[in-house]
Design goal:
This protein is α/β, with parallel strands linked by helices. It is 40% helix and 19% strand. Bound molecules: adenosine monophosphate.
């Protein structure tokens, strides 16, 4: 069994997973860490338990995780720990066994992801203290996009500046795109190494990846997760000229403007209602003008990105929908496929309605459009088991 840990700034997600079957023995979440409301919940054998945390730190949360693993008699079956790490910088292009030198290199990526990296590093350190005898493996969100060619990953700014300051489009959601691409190959009955895929991970955050023969050749998120699609609360692509303009108009510093673009924009900002796609679909059905516009903008941007990835791929063998919205919204999937009919997609309405809440399937009777449930934790467990066995 593999313990998978995803340590965020105020939360720790964890799961105990069998890497061969994907079966989860225990899953849980410690949240609101650092506040008086800090709590932890577990689910094991379908039974849910929740408790408040008296020690509200990340260490307190990990103590509670270890206590729960002991109580559920799982601790002795854990062979390795897999850590989800948001940013691997230019250095890490695959999952890596963590030793002192690797941890140092992960720390050097901190300026590239100041919001996520400190928590990721803390998660490794605390887990290593608790489980020093086990191998720990880092699985990077950015790694899958490492091979995107220079002409696609560079920004058109002076090259010396890009080189000196590690400025490039890194991309994110790599673990999800990699997982669903492998699943798509299985569903299509073809080797991944012979497929041209476009993967759309659509959750509260969202990104599209062009995957040629199993390798990511372009993706919509960039130096940070702000670039690309319209997301729940992120604007996605905007003109950089807006930064100083909005700063002056709203009397905000750069951090304030970036905060606005990350947390108050996207579906939430346009609809002036919610970042939750389900809520917006309901409101749109009832004629809410903001919800209708937000969803229209979302679909338009998404379809434009998908169509543009025919350039690096040369063709499309399948489009993949995944993430909370991709897996559960027949409404948005239908709109996107109808806009992209010129690429050969032909909406199969019954299959589209049926692919919902955990059910995968092909929703196009033309070029394949696959709904696939992502499982990043399982891929982290698989990578961890493989590396720990070496
Ligand atoms: P994630 O970040 O992957 O958990 O995805 C969260 C997003 O999925 C939110 O915008 C949810 O509203 C959306 N979502 C979940 N279920 C549905 C559904 N049945 N219809 C539309 N959107 C959904």
């Amino acid at each position: 069994m593999i313990l998978v840990i995803n340590c965020g700034s105020s939360s720790v997600k964890f799961a105990v997973i069998n890497p061969a079957s994907g079966e989860t023995s225990l899953v849980g979440l410690a949240e609101k860490l650092g506040s008086v409301d800090a709590c932890i919940s577990f689910k094991t054998n379908g039974v849910k338990t929740a408790a408040t945390l008296s020690d509200t730190t990340h260490t307190g949360a990990m103590n509670a995780v270890i206590a729960q693993l002991t109580q559920a008699d799982l601790l002795s079956s854990i062979r390795a720990v897999g850590h989800r790490i948001v940013h691997g910088g230019a250095h890490f292009h695959e999952s890596t066994l963590i030793n002192a030198a690797v941890l140092e290199q992960i720390k050097q990526c901190e300026p590239l992801a100041p919001l996520h990296a400190p928590a990721n590093i803390l998660g490794i350190q605390i887990a290593q203290q608790h489980l020093p005898q086990l191998p720990h493996v880092a699985v990077f969100d950015t790694a899958f996009h490492h091979n995107i060619p220079e002409h696609a990953h560079l920004y058109a700014i002076p090259k010396a500046i890009s080189a000196a300051h590690q400025v490039r489009r890194y991309g994110f959601h790599g673990t999800s795109h990699r997982f669903v691409a492998a699943q798509a190959a299985q569903m299509l009955g073809k080797p991944l190494t012979e497929l041209a895929l476009i993967s759309a991970h659509l959750g509260n955050g969202g990104s599209v990846a062009a995957i040629l023969n199993g390798v990511s050749v372009d993706t919509s998120m960039g130096f940070t997760p702000l670039e690309g699609l319209i997301m729940g609360t992120r604007s996605g692509d905007i003109d950089a000229g807006l930064l100083p303009y909005l700063g002056k108009a709203l009397n905000l510093d750069t951090t304030g403007v970036i905060d606005l673009l990350n947390k108050q924009s996207g579906l939430l900002g346009v609809s002036e209602l919610s970042n939750d796609c389900r809520e917006l679909e309901e409101a749109a059905a009832n004629g809410h003008a903001g919800a209708i516009l937000a969803l229209e903008m979302y679909v338009y941007r998404l379809a434009k990105y998908i169509a543009s990835y025919v350039v690096p791929l040369g063709r499309v063998d399948a489009l993949i929908f995944t993430g909370g919205i991709g897996e559960n919204s027949p409404f948005l999937r239908a709109k996107v496929l109808n806009l992209l009919a010129f690429l050969g997609f032909k909406l199969d309405d019954a299959a589209n309605q049926a692919a919902f809440r955990g059910k995968s399937g092909n929703i196009s009777s033309g070029v394949a459009a696959l709904v696939i449930n992502t499982d990043e934790e399982w891929l982290i467990a698989q990578d961890t088991a493989l590396i720990a066995a070496q």
